[in-house]
Amino acid sequence: MPQTGNILAFDTATKVCSVALRTSDGVATERWDQGQGIHSEKLFLFVRELLDSSGLQMSKVGTLLFTTGPGSYTGLRIGTSAMKGFAFGNDLEVYGISTLAFFAESARLSKKKIERIHAVIDARRSHLYHQLYSIGETDIVPETEVSVREIASLESLIKEGDVIIGTGIKRLPDVLRERLCVLETQNIKAGALISLFDRYTNTGEADALHTVIKKVAPEQFEPYYYGPSIPQVNHGNLGN
User: Fold this and answer.
1) Average pLDDT of the chain?
2) Which residue has the higher pLDDT, 238 or 197?
3) ∠ CA 187-191-192, rounded to 5°
């Protein structure tokens, strides 16, 4: 496992609030919860609990990882504000990671036998944010671009036994859910952000992951509410 000092990672892009810390000696701890509007309270509480339990100050966290979208407007604003607050006055390297790639990595780490993963986020009305991944020997490989899809259009992409992970899954018709292995939101853990970053720091895999992991300048960053390369959909505030 690559070691790059102390790494703090968090996700606030959906109703899930997940925080993970891995110290330079390889000890990993996590906190997790889900619900409407929990991020403003739970994110900072979880970060403080993990730092305190490890005897660390934020100034000793070398790398900060966070989800950049697509996702909830409110959740991403809270996550971005927290990232900027954590980075201010501390010598942190900050990396933003695609929410859908993070979901797919969470699925890969579930240890289920997986060949294809549909990572989705509720986009309200009749749409989901979607990206399809296949599983290599040790990694995830994007098979489609991030897109906003009508739920009905997913039928042509779904194969029997595919895995789906994310939010908004309950809005899929029963006939589609029956063809899928559904991973509940409890499988979405911030430790998967650290797993992705480990591979990114391996020279041989950096190019493959450059589209989903980017080093950011905290003071200039704005979240990808609708994804970095997909058109805005006028669905209003997506909620948490």
Assistant:
1) 88
2) 197
3) 70
DSSP 164: E
Q: List the beta strands (DSSP E) in 62-161.
A: 63-67, 93-97, 116-122, 127-135, 140-142, 147-150
User: Do 166 and 121 meet the contact criterion of CB atoms below 8 Å apart?
Assistant: yes
Pairing mode, strands 213-215 and 93-97: antiparallel
Is the Cβ–Cβ distance between 86 and 92 less than 8 Å? yes
35 to 42, 119, 122: CA distances (angstroms): 10, 19, 14
DSSP state of 184: P
Confidence of residue 157 (pLDDT cuts 50, 70, 90): very high
**Residue 203 confidence (pLDDT) above 60:** no
Q: At 136, is the pLDDT very low, low, confident or very high (cuts 50, 70, 90)?
A: confident
- CA pair distance 108, 215, nearest whole angstrom: 23
CB 97 within 8 A of CB 67: yes
Q: How many residues does the chain have?
A: 240
pLDDT at residue number 113 = 84
Give the count of beta carbons closer than 10 Å to the beta carbon of residue 228: 15
Q: Which of 56, 46, 40, 93 is nearest to 218 (CA)?
A: 93
The answer to whether residues 141 and 205 touch, using CB atoms and an 8 Å cutoff, is no
Q: What gap in Å lies between CA 154 and CA 162, rounded to an integer?
A: 12
